[in-house]
Write a structure and sequence with these properties.
The chain is an alpha/beta fold. It is about 25% helix and about 30% strand. Strands 1, 2, 3, 4, 5, 6, 7 and 13 form an 8-stranded mixed sheet that branches. Strands 8-9-10-11-12 form a 5-stranded mixed sheet, covered by helices on one side.
Length: about 260
């Protein structure tokens, strides 16, 4: 199958200050680690337009003490894209910071791992420590989308468009998936929460919100193998992404960077 060459963009929509112990399983609680940023990603080519994750809204930011910078969905016009243009959305997982705002995309279909949907609606959600990073309203929206026929349930790896492949890696959640994208630089990997920060995978130090530590460590290896070079591994929350890559235009500086 012919691979399309894609552009990939990161849109930064929120931020929060963190301690080292909040970013690493073995982190020092007395050590400040700086900020954690929140992103959604847009993949586009002549033939494809895919949004990866949908972020959260201002209300969720206030509830969880995050600094809300902008609505990620309303930021799409910065890339000459409207809500109505978005027909396909890959949800890497269903945590509140990746799967909110789906109600703003009533014409879209969502690609999610079946393991993730089953976990987020299953018996383990009776435990507050396991459901903490999920928002029941987001899950209800996704169940409604299932009943509307707008959710594609995946089981493992799947090429959803020529040159756009998802891979289930688990670890952080039951059905976390990463996105491998063919670009003019080779294979780029949107790692999402397989590695929140560069340091997580580079130093093999897992993030502390983790369902299966072994799977998270395996995911570090997977993203390294799937990317054509280390520079094409994009962490899910690292502020360094905004420094490593350039904005596509003056008006998008500090908001959007072009990854490839």
């Amino acid at each position: 199958m012919r691979k399309n060459v894609h552009e990939v963009f990161a849109i930064r929509y929120a931020t929060v200050k963190r301690k080292s112990s909040e970013n690493f399983l073995d982190g020092d609680p007395h050590e400040s680690a700086g900020n954690m940023d929140y992103f959604v990603w847009l993949i586009r080519s002549r033939d494809n337009l895919v949004l990866v994750d949908t972020g959260f809204n201002e209300e969720a930011a206030a509830q969880r003490g995050r600094t809300f910078l902008r609505c990620p969905i309303d930021s799409l016009p910065l890339l000459n894209t409207s809500r109505a243009d978005i027909k396909d959305v890959i949800l890497t997982h269903l945590h509140y910071d990746h799967a909110g705002n789906c109600d703003l995309l009533p014409g879209a279909r969502f690609f999610v791992q079946a393991d993730e949907m089953q976990y987020a609606t299953g018996p383990h959600m009776r435990h507050s420590v396991l459901r903490k990073a999920y928002h029941v309203g987001d899950i209800q929206d996704m169940v409604s989308a299932v009943y509307d026929g707008r959710v594609v349930m995946l089981n493992g790896s799947k090429e959803i468009r020529p040159g756009i492949i998802v891979h289930r890696v688990g670890g952080h959640t039951a059905g976390l998936q990463i996105v491998q994208v063919w670009t003019d630089k080779g294979w780029l990997v949107l790692a999402s929460d397989a590695t929140h920060f560069y340091a997580n995978f580079q130093e093999s130090r897992p993030f502390p919100i983790v369902l299966h530590v072994g799977e998270m460590l395996d995911a570090f290896e997977a993203i390294t193998e799937l990317a054509s070079s280390p520079e094409l591994i994009i962490p899910g929350h690292d502020p360094m992404v905004m420094d490593k890559f350039d904005a596509p235009s003056k008006v998008t500086e500090g908001v959007v960077v072009r990854l490839a």
